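dumping this here so i dont lose it
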């Protein structure tokens, strides 16, 4: 089977507990390699747990009828897996030490950390690839700037550069618009559109409908750890389905390729 034909993700009847809470409830979901898909749901629906299950930070309950495969394999060394997945999460932003520079953060992607520590010894090739990732996102000027002195949008783009340093085939984004102001949100969408049009797969996890860029063709609605709808944006992003998902009456409209909601 070719790499392109190997699914990014194949979950079947997967249950994940977070403490005493049922986070994923016999979830079945397949995502193809290179696919652009949004996982949409309210807070507490299991979205972040799904990402952590993909990155092997959370593990499913063992059951005979349950299975999980990532890039065609059920067993991974996480240090082999994570370079294949460009991950951007709120946990990473919170973990970035404030005196770490943009270059530190991007280089840290080679060491599965969030900054460069004394025991890390980046090679010249690492620095070249980090510089290329920063340049790709047009933030080379942030290489020497501490994270503490960056705007939230600059910090978020630095984390995306960190995720791209291994040249992954898919970018996984967990609530990427959180903490961003309007300008930062617009810059984020433009960045994601560029990456999608360059051929990168996108898995966007969010509860903000306007974050769904036009290049994302498929939307999965997640509620209480279960898939309640899965299909094209036109079929899934309806007033009726989103009202039921978020527990509030909303109206959906479309403008310039984006979907928006009004209460």
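and the seq i came up w/
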């Amino acid at each position: 089977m070719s790499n392109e034909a190997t699914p990014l993700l194949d979950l079947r009847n997967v249950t994940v507990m977070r403490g005493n809470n049922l986070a994923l409830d016999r979830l079945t979901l397949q995502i193809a390699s290179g696919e652009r898909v949004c996982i949409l749901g309210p807070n507490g629906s299991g979205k972040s747990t799904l990402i952590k299950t993909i990155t092997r930070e959370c593990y499913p309950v063992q059951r005979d009828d349950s299975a999980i495969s990532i890039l065609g394999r059920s067993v991974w060394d996480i240090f082999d897996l994570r370079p294949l997945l460009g991950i951007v999460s709120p946990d990473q932003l919170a973990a970035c030490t404030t005196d770490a520079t943009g270059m530190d953060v991007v280089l840290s992607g080679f060491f599965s950390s969030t900054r460069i520590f004394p025991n890390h010894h980046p090679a010249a090739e690492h620095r070249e690839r980090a510089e290329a990732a920063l340049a790709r996102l047009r933030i080379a000027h942030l290489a020497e700037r501490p994270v503490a002195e960056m705007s939230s949008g600059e910090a978020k783009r630095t984390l995306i550069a960190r995720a791209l340093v291994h040249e992954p085939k898919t970018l996984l984004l967990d609530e990427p618009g959180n903490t961003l102001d309007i300008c930062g949100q617009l810059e984020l969408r433009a960045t994601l559109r560029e990456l999608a049009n360059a051929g990168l797969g996108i898995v966007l996890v969010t509860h903000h409908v306007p974050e769904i860029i036009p290049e994302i063709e498929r939307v999965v609605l997640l509620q209480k750890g279960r898939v309640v709808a899965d299909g094209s944006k036109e079929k899934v992003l309806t007033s009726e389905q989103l009202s039921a998902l978020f527990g509030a009456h909303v109206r959906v409209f479309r403008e310039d390729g984006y979907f928006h909601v009004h209460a």
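The chain has one domain: 9-262.
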